[in-house]
Amino acid sequence: MSRTSAQRLQDILAAIGAIDRADAVGQRHPHDADLPDVVLAAVQFHVFTIGEAVKALPRDLTGSRPDVPWSDVARMRDLIGHHYYRLDAQIVRATITEPIDRLRVACEALLREGTDQPAQPT
């Protein structure tokens, strides 16, 4: 059974929340030399999850929010999944911060507006 668009939007928001929590843990323990790698791994996993959910949203839904770089988010998922050896922590951070913020706002708005269509690949 396929997940609905609303469920996919909720998945995205849950993953964004997990990224926020991972960042907070890293900031609370600045002297732990191993933590940045652990935080980066968590962030990459959740960005991967977000990308999967974004890819499953219908085009008309993503098209209603052209200010969100939906395809960039999906491409980041592909980069993490297929070109993990190219990733640099600073590049990942710089690349995802603003798009994730816009994605959060868009997903919250779309959920408020109500959407229950089945998610389809874009």
UniProtKB/TrEMBL annotation:
| Coiled-coil spans in chain | none
Can you provide one Gene Ontology molecular function annotated for this UniProt record?
nucleotide binding
What does UniProt give as GO cellular component? toxin-antitoxin complex
List the Pfam families.
HepT-like (PF01934)
**Which superkingdom?**
Bacteria
What UniProt keywords are attached to this protein's entry? Hydrolase, Nuclease, Nucleotide-binding, Phosphoprotein, Toxin-antitoxin system
Q: Which organism is it from?
A: Cellulomonas aerilata
- InterPro entries reported for this sequence: HepT-like, HepT_RNase_toxin
Protein name according to UniProt = DUF86 domain-containing protein
